[in-house]
C-alpha cells in the first residue's frame, strides 16, 4: 500500500491540472482495499476512487482522500473453440488489454484501441468508439460495496449499461469500487467496420484482421484526437445528445445538414462536435484553454490552465448550443470539487 500526503495529482489527470489532494492512497490487493474501506478515518473523510484520471476535471484541490487501485493482471479464465474469457485487474491499462487481445487474434475490443484509461474505469464508463462499446463484451464486473464492504459479482444485466452509463455511475445507487472485470472475446472475430470512415481507412485490405482494425482505428484517433501527454485533454468533453426524431425534423428545417445517428426507439443521437462547431467554437482559444481545432468536442489545456477556466469555457459552449439549438449538452467528464 502507498500513502502520500499533500500530493500532486498533475500526473493523475489527463488535463494535467496541478491540483493537490490531502491524501493519496494506492492499494495492491482486495485485502488492502478492505483495510482502507474499514478504516474509521477513511470513513469520516471525503473520498474519491479514480482510475487514470482521463475523464476528470478537478476544479479545486481535493480536501479528502483520493484512492487508486494497483490491481493488475490479465488471465484466461475459460476457453472454448470459439470464445475466450479474460479476467482483468481494474488498474490494467485498457489499451494494453486491447493489444494483448489483438496479439492473440481475439476479437471484440479492437475498435476500442487507444482509448486512454484503466480497465475498471472503462467498465464503469461504458467506453465506446467506432460502433463498439465495452458492454458488448463484459460478462461480469467484481466490485466492493463501500458501505457494507461486501463483494458482489455484477452480471452484464446488473450493470444496467447505456450510452456512457452504468449502474456504477448512478449516484443514487450504493457506491461500489470495481476490482476486476471479465470480458468474453471471440476466437472467430466478426469485425464491426460500419462506423464513419473505418472502411476507407482499411483501404485495400480485402480481408482485414483484428490487427488491421486496431491499426486503422489508432490511425484515425491519432489524426483526430490530441495526445493527452502533449496537450492536456479528457477526450470528448460532452456526451452526444439524444433527442426525439420529431425534434430533429424541426431542426432540419433550419439546418438541413445536421448529422444524426439512430439511437433508442424514436430517438436520434446528434454529434455534439457538430453543434459546437456550428456555434463557432472550433479552434478557439480562451486564455490557456482551447477547443481542439480538429475535433470540437475536445477541450484542451494549452498550458497552465486551471480547472475553473475549462469549466467556464464548457459553460459558454453549453449556453451557446442551448440558445441556438435548444439542446442541452451534458458533460461526459466528471467535475470534482
Ligand atoms: N463533427 C463535426 N465537427 C467536429 C467534430 C465532429 O461536425 O468538430 C461531426 C461530424 O459530422 C462527424 C461526427 O460529428 O462525422 C462524428 O464525429 P466523430 O466520429 O469524431 O465522433 P464523435 O461523435 O464526436 C464519439 C465518441 C468518441 C469516439 C468517437 C468515435 C462520444 C461523446 N464521443 O465522438 O469517444 O472516439 O465517437 O466512435 O460519444 C470519448 O468518449 O472521449 C471519445 C473520444
TrEMBL record:
This protein's major location comes to cytoplasm
Q: Which GO terms describe its cellular component?
A: cytosol
Q: Where in the cell is it found?
A: Cytoplasm
The domain of life is Bacteria
- Entry's Gene Ontology BP terms: cell division; cell wall organization; peptidoglycan biosynthetic process; regulation of cell shape
Where does this protein act, in terms of pathway?
Answer: Cell wall biogenesis; peptidoglycan biosynthesis
EC number of the protein: 1.3.1.98
Record key words, sorted: Cell cycle, Cell division, Cell shape, Cell wall biogenesis/degradation, Cytoplasm, FAD, Flavoprotein, NADP, Oxidoreductase, Peptidoglycan synthesis
Alphabetically, the GO molecular function entries are: FAD binding; UDP-N-acetylmuramate dehydrogenase activity
Does Cell division show up as a keyword for this record?
Answer: yes
Which PROSITE patterns does this chain map to?
A: FAD_PCMH
The FAD-binding PCMH-type domain covers which part of the protein? 16-188
Q: Which reaction does it catalyse?
A: UDP-N-acetyl-alpha-D-muramate + NADP(+) = UDP-N-acetyl-3-O-(1-carboxyvinyl)-alpha-D-glucosamine + NADPH + H(+)
Q: Does the keyword Cell division apply?
A: yes
Catalytic site residues? 164, 236, 332
Q: Which Gene3D superfamilies did the record assign?
A: 3.30.465.10, UDP-N-acetylenolpyruvoylglucosamine reductase, C-terminal domain, Uridine Diphospho-n-acetylenolpyruvylglucosamine Reductase, domain 2
The task this protein performs is described as: Cell wall formation.
Q: Which family does it belong to?
A: Belongs to the MurB family.
Protein name as annotated:
UDP-N-acetylenolpyruvoylglucosamine reductase
Tell me what organism the protein belongs to.
Answer: Candidatus Parabacteroides intestinigallinarum
Gene responsible for this protein = murB
Amino acid at each position: 500500500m502507498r500513502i502520500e500526503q499533500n500530493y500532486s495529482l498533475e500526473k493523475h489527470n489527463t488535463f494535467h491540472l496541478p491540483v493537490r489532494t490531502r491524501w493519496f492512497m494506492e492499494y495492491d490487493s482486495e485485502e488492502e482495499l478492505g483495510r482502507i474501506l474499514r478504516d474509521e478515518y477513511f470513513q469520516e473523510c471525503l473520498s474519491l476512487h479514480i482510475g487514470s484520471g482521463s475523464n476528470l476535471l478537478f476544479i479545486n484541490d481535493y480536501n479528502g482522500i483520493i484512492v487508486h487501485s494497483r490491481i493488475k493482471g490479465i488471465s484466461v479464465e475459460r476457453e472454448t473453440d470459439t470464445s475466450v474469457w479474460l479476467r482483468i485487474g481494474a488498474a490494467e491499462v485498457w489499451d494494453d488489454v486491447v493489444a494483448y487481445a489483438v496479439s492473440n487474434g481475439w476479437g471484440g475490443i479492437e475498435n476500442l484501441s487507444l482509448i486512454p484509461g484503466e480497465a475498471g474505469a472503462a467498465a464503469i464508463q461504458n467506453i465506446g468508439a467506432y460502433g463498439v462499446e465495452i458492454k458488448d463484451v463484459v460478462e461480469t464486473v467484481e466490485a466492493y460495496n463501500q458501505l457494507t464492504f461486501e463483494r458482489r459479482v455484477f452480471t452484464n444485466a446488473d450493470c444496467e449499461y447505456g450510452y456512457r452509463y452504468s449502474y456504477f455511475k448512478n449516484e443514487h445507487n450504493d457506491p461500489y469500487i470495481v476490482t476486476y472485470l471479465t470480458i468474453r472475446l471471440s476466437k472467430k472475430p466478426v469485425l464491426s467496420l460500419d462506423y464513419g470512415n473505418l472502411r476507407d481507412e482499411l483501404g485495400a485490405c480485402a480481408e482485414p484482421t483484428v490487427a488491421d482494425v486496431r491499426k486503422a482505428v489508432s490511425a484515425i484517433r491519432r489524426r483526430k484526437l490530441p495526445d493527452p501527454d502533449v496537450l492536456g485533454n479528457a477526450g470528448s468533453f460532452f456526451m452526444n445528445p439524444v433527442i426525439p426524431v420529431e425534434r430533429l425534423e424541426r431542426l432540419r428545417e433550419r439546418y438541413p445538414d445536421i448529422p444524426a445517428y439512430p439511437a433508442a426507439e424514436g430517438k436520434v443521437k446528434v454529434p455534439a462536435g457538430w453543434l459546437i462547431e456550428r456555434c463557432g467554437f472550433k479552434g478557439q482559444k480562451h486564455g490557456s484553454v482551447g477547443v481542439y481545432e480538429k475535433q470540437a468536442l475536445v477541450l484542451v489545456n494549452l498550458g497552465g490552465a486551471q480547472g475553473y477556466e475549462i469549466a467556464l469555457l464548457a459553460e459558454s459552449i453549453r449556453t451557446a448550443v442551448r440558445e441556438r439549438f435548444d439542446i442541452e449538452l451534458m458533460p461526459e467528464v466528471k467535475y470534482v470539487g
